[in-house]
Amino acid sequence: MSHGTPVVFIVDDDVSVRESLKLLIESVGWHPEVFGSAKEFLSRDRVSAPSCVVLDVHLPDLGGLDLQALVADRAEMPIIFITGHGDVPTAVRAMRAGAVEFLTKPFVDEVLLDAIQEAFNRSRRELDDAARTRSLRDHYASLSRREQEVMALVISGRLNKQVGSVLGISEITVKAHRGRMMRKMDAGTLPDLVRMAALLHLAPI
User: Fold this and answer.
1) Fold of 142-199
2) What confidence tens digit (pLDDT) does each residue in 63-87 have?
3) Which residues does 3 contact at the CB level (< 8 Å), separation at least 6?
4) Is the pLDDT of residue 193 over 90?
């Protein structure tokens, strides 16, 4: 699945660091956006392209770890921490919360670029998964109420005859509903349908 130009959000209160990182990011063809504080960054809308944040641990208004907690729901936007005063407990906390890397200044440019590439790979996977889930939700929403009932029983392992008994309809009618339901869900097999139901968090009956 294609996405737009990758975006690197740089959040650091040191203007010289922001500018040097901006030039580095631009040199490899990515799009940098710079912010001097966490609050300034939080006012930025989400992007649909692969993205990541290069984030200083120590910021004047809101610390990097606090910002990481605030954007924990943005799995499509991994974080790379940079700091001039790193310590093991802070690094462990950041990594446990999902950071891609924790780098102490000064760091080698290639190490940061490799971390950003890994962050973009992670971001693309999250964006693709989210797109697939949205598509599944659209397919499920297109089902009639009866087709949704049939689906719930089918993913529970019920045979057509058993589905008909539960719903009070004939086996032939069940087959018709089941066929339409499978086509609308774009499910080739029952295991495919079960996996889809799991992604949609549908509970079997």
Assistant:
1) Arc Repressor Mutant, subunit A (1.10.10)
2) 999 999 999 999 999 999 999 887 8
3) 48, 49, 50, 124, 127
4) yes
Tell whether pTM > 0.85: no
Evaluate whether 7-129 and 142-199 have a shared fold: no
pLDDT in tens, 37-57: 999 999 999 898 999 999 999
- Nearest CA to 80 out of 47, 107, 40, 48 is that of 107
User: Across the beta sheet with 7-11, what order do the strands follow?
Assistant: 31-35, 7-11, 51-56, 79-83, 101-104
Domain boundaries, the chain: 7-129, 142-199
CATH code 3.40.50.2300 for 7-129: yes
Q: What is the dihedral of CA 116, 122, 125, 127, to 10 degrees?
A: -70
